[in-house]
Amino acid sequence: MGLWDGLYRVLMRRNSVYVTFVVAGAFVGERMVDNGVHKLWDYCNVGKKFEDIPVLGQRLSE
Which stretch is the leader sequence (predicted)? Predict the structure, then answer.
């Protein structure tokens, strides 16, 4: 029994298991790509974002 035979027996014999695997994989993959792009954006824009500028959003004390 090879790798492909094992994957076929576990995932692709029943349509409900296959569809569940595809939907769950798409959800997990989307979250991974979203987090990766967000971290890349933060890395490339350090010091340029609104949160990084200390004087913005602060009120002067009376």
Answer: none
